[in-house]
Design brief:
mainly alpha, two-stranded antiparallel ribbon, 22 helices, 71% helix, globular, cell membrane, transmembrane, PTS_Sugar-EIIC/EIIB, PTS_EIIC_3, Cellobiose PTS, EIIC [Lactobacillus plantarum JDM1]
Length: 492
């Protein structure tokens, strides 16, 4: 036993001395803090947009058909498009804003500069709808109900009958517009990079004194905008030169380059089985050593998992939500509503044990305290009150449960037993089963119920052994106190 305790102590010392310091140093850097806090500004719009996404694509077919027939689906989709579907806009503004605010300067001009830069660095046009509709592989022309009324081949053959000037005009990209594609999930990594770089550059120039200082008599609101003029002008000018260079030499733009070279590979990595298992293991791993695992992993993964959610939302809106059509399995809702279901470590099984099977006073008491928070996916009373932190008796189920739930959830989606998550961003405090229905319909609600049973089955044997130890300690303490009381009474 001594050797075991010694080895545990040595391992804990290694983690605390060698692993956690660089991790925490990274998490607390200015860019990561800006990313973490800046993304919060997108959450209200993502959640509000999710409500309209549900209404436009109601999970009960008969209701969905009635909503579509009434014409309200188009209005719900409009609200979704103006909130959830432009999440990269909120990220670009929020991240630069937080970065500069944390540096102690007026932050809104930096956020707006970031937004201008985000627009400037993308090509402001969209492909002609006819270009994608033409040819054997084209989509053809569809009506409001989504039915093809003219095939791609028919479109091509009919356009070929037109004069070449008119044909060219009809197939030319539509310019002078903002492409919604880059305002949603596909532009997220670019928005993060732009937000961080703009925040850093803007702060550096203000710190260096690159600003126009007006007399004291000028109102502060006016003077503040002149303070922002030089940093904003420099950033926008440099961004224009970058856009011009990439357009001239690469025939593309920065957002497309970032998506192709960086975001798409990283999203693929985050959406893999290996990625899901690593995330599921690291959340409780960090918590075991007293560090907020959800905060760390959320800061690292949100920039990839939130775009995965957005991609699935777009497929849901288009009625094409299948893995075969490119739906992601691992999304931000996979993280919130499976890996962290009922709290880090998926501790609902431990709650059930404490309420119905525990014999020790300690577990019974803490179980009653944890019951209500657990319903809303909060388990700090267990993490620090039980405790789960640095508790070797419960380490195995604490690590194992989220890994097994992530593995099994990935596989049931991959093999089509349950559908992919629909892109609805249910708040992370949404109770289990309800959240399952919102993010994936009745099948996902049933699967979420099964994961709760899994948690109970995994935790029970370990909790039973730990409870027996606590009970024996309590009995020994009670016996010692009784003996001391008897001795005092005899002495009296």
């Amino acid at each position: 036993m001594e050797n075991s305790n010694s080895s545990n102590s040595a391992f804990s010392k290694f983690i605390n001395d060698k692993i956690l310091p660089p991790v925490m140093k990274f998490v607390n850097t200015k860019p990561v803090k800006a990313l973490q806090d800046g993304m919060v500004y997108a959450l209200p719009f993502i959640i509000i947009g999710s409500v309209f996404l549900i209404l436009a694509n109601f999970p009960i077919p008969a209701v969905a058909a009635a909503i579509k027939a009434s014409g309200w689906a188009a209005f719900f989709n409009q609200a979704y498009t103006a909130t959830f579907a432009i999440m990269s806009v909120w990220a670009a503004v929020g991240i630069a804003y937080v970065y500069v605010r944390n540096e102690g300067y007026e932050a809104l001009p930096a956020g707006l500069t970031s937004l201008a830069t985000f627009f400037l660095l993308q090509t402001l046009n969209i492909a002609s709808p006819l270009a994608g509709a033409m040819g054997k592989a084209g989509t053809g022309i569809t009506n409001a109900a989504g039915n093809v009324v003219m095939s791609g081949t028919a479109v091509s053959s009919n356009i070929d009958k037109l004069p070449s000037a008119l044909r060219g005009f009809l197939t030319t990209p539509v310019s002078g517009v903002i492409n919604l594609t880059w305002l949603g999930g596909q532009g997220m990594v670019a928005a993060i990079i732009i937000g961080i770089l703009v925040g850093w550059a803007y702060s550096a120039m203000i710190r260096a004194g690159w600003k126009i200082t007006l007399p004291e008599q000028v109102p502060a609101s006016v003077a503040g905008q002149f303070t922002a003029m030089i940093p904003a002008g420099v950033i926008i000018t440099v961004s224009m030169l970058i856009y011009a260079a990439i357009s001239a030499f690469g025939n593309t733009d920065l957002l497309q380059l970032i998506y192709t070279m960086l975001q798409a590979p990283l999203q693929g990595l985050s959406d893999s089985l290996g990625g899901a298992l690593v995330i599921a293991f690291l959340v409780p791993f960090f918590w075991f050593f007293g560090v907020h695992g959800g905060l760390i992993m959320g800061a690292i993964t949100s920039g990839l998992l939130i775009p995965n959610t957005a991609d699935n939302a777009a497929l849901t809106k288009a009625g094409k939500l299948t893995v075969a059509n490119g739906a992601h399995i691992v999304t931000n809702e996979f993280y919130n509503n499976f890996i962290n279901l009922t709290g880090s470590g998926i501790t609902i099984g431990l709650v059930i044990f404490t309420l119905f099977a525990a014999r020790s006073v300690q577990l019974k008491t803490i179980g009653k305290i944890e019951l209500v928070p657990a319903l809303f996916n909060i388990n700090e009373p267990f993490l620090f009150g039980l405790p789960l932190v640095m508790n070797p008796f419960l380490a195995i189920p604490f690590f194992l449960t989220p890994v097994l739930v992530a593995l099994s959830t990935y596989l049931v989606i991959y093999f089509g037993i349950v559908p992919p998550l629909n892109g609805v961003a249910a708040p992370w405090t949404t109770p289990a089963i309800i959240s399952g229905f919102l993010i994936g319909g009745w099948k996902m609600a049933i699967w979420q119920t099964i994961t709760l049973v899994m948690s109970t089955a995994i935790y029970f044997p370990f909790a039973k052994k730990y409870d027996r130890i606590l009970k024996s300690q309590e009995d020994a303490k009670a016996a010692a106190e009784a003996a001391a009381g008897n001795a005092a009474a005899e002495k009296a």
